[in-house]
Amino acid sequence: MNDPFSGLLPKAMRFYSLEQTQIVLLFGIIMFFGALGGRLFKKLKIPQVVGYIVIGIIIGSSGLQVLGKETIAALNPVSTVSLSLIGFLIGAELKLNVIKKYGKQFVGILLFESITPFFIVGGLIFAISLLVTSNLNLSIALALILGAICSATAPAATTDVLVEYRTKGPLTTIVYGIVAMDDAVALILYAIANSIAFPLLNGHSVSLGIQLLMIGRDIFGSILLGGFFGVLLGFLLKNIMNQDGRILSFALGSLLLCTGFSLILDLDNILAAMSLGFVMVNFAPAKTRPVFNLVEKFTPPVYVLFFVLVGAKLNIWIITPYLGILAIVYVLGRSFGKTIGAVIGSWITKAPASVRKYLPYCLLSQAGVAIGLSIAAGNDFADSIGPQILLIITATTFIVQLIGPVFVKHGVTKAGEVGLNITEDDIKKNTKIGDVTWGNEKICSQNSPSIVSETETIREILDAFSRHNNLNYAVRSDGGKLKGLISLEHLKETLLIGELAENLLAEDIMDPVGVTCSPQMELPEAYKLFDDYDTEAIPIVGYNEELLGVLEKPALDHYVHARIIELRRTIEKLG
After folding, report:
1. How would DSSP label each residue in 52-106?
2. What crossing angle do the helices spanning 48-59 and 18-43 adopt, rounded to 10°?
3. Distance CA 144, CA 133 (A)
4. Helix, strand, or coil here: 535?
5. Average pLDDT of the chain?
6. Distance of alpha carbon 467 from alpha carbon 452, whole angstroms
7. Which residue has the higher pLDDT, 371 or 527?
């Protein structure tokens, strides 16, 4: 391997060869600096996937060349696995009830957003190429091939942004459906374009029928292969629930087997993985669904590797002025075509307003299939337009992979779908005790209704119980410190003694406190305290030990459930 690290390692490596050590070190560099770049860009309010790609550009072919061509080629399996993971999780979004609700919009928008840029880019490229080269056949062929390639949308960068910003709603659903299916449209358009371009440049024809049969084999073969492994995985997971390690092992093993067989059979691994996910989410037993959450937790480091390698492959110094003009026209024409097509398709299918307005922002990214088709064109037209197509797609991929995620973020933010795809666990992890309300009342405040003075009488305490939601009250000393806790059950027992109870004060009937919490404590830790101390109420104290209220488990449950209901109502309002 011709990488700059060959002279940096000690010669006395007894357990690893130099190549193995280099790979381990390079994985460390990719993971560490990729994650660092993602973190930095996230701080700048830019999707972290852009940071991954920029780090790849810096250390790859366009920059320091820490990752040489041979190393990048050797790490191609990482990209393959990443795309399969993306396909699997996209398949999980294509639930039958979603398809039933949005199926008409999927198909209508898909056709317009794929075919419209085909004609716009094709027309512009033809005009410029003919003007510069005066070669009619070459110009037609170049326009057809680039027009076909431009119809594809990269699922990876798009869905990564949707996952990062936890989006949910009609726009997110449509985007998942479009990026899952428009690669198939791109393959069909490429087959048609290739069958027309080949005789124009080479003098003999290629059968369109044979090419379409091959495309049909690829599409339906991939779906059947993924469906088979989906059924197999569902069967295996029936009897191993509540064993996360085994579930994840079987899920990843099935996905890798599916990917491996798709490569052996020369099928589309993304489509096969998507089919696997689709079968799992729709036809496997309901108790197997947690597999998607487990796989999703496994994906972040793989995504870092994938997008850093995407950036490392890009060489931005190889474009001539003529090809630069074609690349700019390609990007502008593709963006305009995707926009017009998405708007027309949304209007015809009567999609929600948020889809009509903001879907075009989510369809700009280009990578996997487009690059794959450009490589195919490079082989099919090696002596004519092939090298030009490779350079144009490489250059434009660099551009749209940087700006695409930013536009996706803008679209889903404007559509109001950011932060809606969260679970109860997500709410707990991102909420502190000081944020919790019980009804319309803050549970954590120096004026909290769940606090009584040590000198208050039974009658006053009963009045407090009648006016507020709390079942437990903290007793505060004259100095504002915690003295004890009074529960409703304890108060009932006190009242049984009759008239003598009326003369008792809060300090006479309170219980000692075994545990406290602070306003800064996150909810998962609070739930753990409830379990560890077998209690339903924990006093809240501040930095100076001042009493701020009482945390009750029912109040936490109510708060979390109310947030979930609020999110569902918001999603319903979006359409």
Report:
1. HHHHHHHHSTTTT-SS-HHHHHHTHHHHHHHHHHHHHHHHHH--HHHHHHHHHHH
2. 140
3. 16
4. coil
5. 79
6. 13
7. 527
Rounded distance between C-alpha atoms, residue 112 and residue 122, angstroms: 15
Q: Count the alpha carbons within 13 Å of 67 in the hemisphere toward its beta carbon.
A: 33
Q: In what order do the strands lie in the sheet with 472-476?
A: 451-453, 472-476, 482-487
User: What is the distance between the terminal CA atoms of the chain, rounded to a whole angstrom?
Assistant: 54
DSSP string of 436-484, one letter each residue: -EETTEESSSTT-TTEEETT-BHHHHHHHHHHSS-SEEEEE-TTSBEEE
pTM: 0.66
CA atoms of 52 and 325, how far apart (whole Å):
27
3-state secondary structure of 316: coil
Fill in the amino acid letter for 428. Answer: K
Query: Which tokens hold the place of 415?
Result: 């559509």
> What kind and span of H or E run contains 311?
helix 290-313
Residue 275: closest CA among 228, 339, 216 = 228
For 106-143, the pLDDT digits (tens) are 888 888 988 999 999 999 999 998 888 888 888 888 89
Judged against a pLDDT cut of 60, whether residue 1 lies above it is answered with no
What is the sign, positive or negative, of the torsion defined by CA atoms of 287, 291, 294, 300? negative
